[in-house]
Design goal:
Layout lengths: L1 H21 L6 H6 L8 H17 L2 H5 L5 H22 L5 H17 L1
Helix pairs in contact: 1-3, 1-6, 3-5, 5-6
């Protein structure tokens, strides 16, 4: 079970660090078309969401890996789950697919349950 939790934590961490970092930079034309949700947010809001995703991505891995403040790992996973609920609401309102959001939410729930 511990190995499975580590795999999920690392996948979540990578996914959110990459996704969050992508929100800091203005997208190219092709990315703008694929990320139409950006129209719903100001640049400052996108940077804030990106910062939360990067911090959550790091928080889901680093505390447990270092053994320092390990209670932060399930809290970070819970925060990422809340971000995914919000993302699913935004994508659903735009009539876009939410499958990826639900998978990431399920992974976050597994980490919360496994590490608390």
């Amino acid at each position: 079970m511990n190995v499975l939790l580590w795999i999920i934590q690392i996948l979540l961490g990578v996914a959110f660090v990459v996704s969050g970092a992508g929100k800091f930079f203005p997208p190219g034309e092709r990315a703008r078309e694929q990320q139409a949700y950006r129209e719903d947010f100001t640049p400052a809001q996108l940077r804030g969401i990106g910062a939360l995703e990067v911090l959550g991505g790091l928080g889901v891995v680093l505390p447990w890996a270092t053994g320092i403040a390990t209670f932060l790992t399930p809290l970070a996973a819970a925060g990422l789950g809340l971000i995914m609920i919000g993302a699913a609401v935004v994508h659903r309102r735009r009539k876009e697919g939410i499958a990826v959001n639900l998978v990431l939410l399920a992974m976050a729930v597994i980490v919360v349950a496994g590490r608390f």
